[in-house]
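Notebook entry, structure prediction.
Reason for the run: the old model in the group folder had no record of what sequence produced it. Starting over properly, with the input documented here first.
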Amino acid sequence: MTAQDATSTTQSGKRPPEASPGATGGDLNAYVIARMGFPARPQEDLAEYMERLLPTMKPFGGHILSHGKEVENLEGVWPGYAVVLGFPDVARAHAWYNSPEYQKIMPLRRRHVDGELIVVEGNPPGYDATGAAAAMRRGILAGAPGTNKK
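New structure, fully documented this time:
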């Protein structure tokens, strides 16, 4: 995204959120997680995609948190490799993905690699799942649909 683009709107007609000037790993609360298959062989398009990826993310406060690292399966099957990108919030992750700059390079990857991408919001520091467990138990006791109370 150029400086001129910062004042324009995205293809969806929405203005992209401003990136926080000092975004670091500690300022990230949204994650784009990708499961990517392995390409049949090295591809020039993929090299170009990797070279151009980070500049498309920077205007949205994005960071590459994990790329090219070995995946260790703890449960289930994970064919391929993982990529984890971080953004300050879900809105900026969506704005990056939908930006003209990223949409321009996405075909470089998609022509050669199958995979799935998700975006997920992170929890605040110190999050404890016991509150969610208590709410789940209240739902079970109340006989909420989808619970195992008979």
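Summary: The CA atoms of residues 37 and 80 lie 4 Å apart.
The old model has been moved to the deprecated folder.
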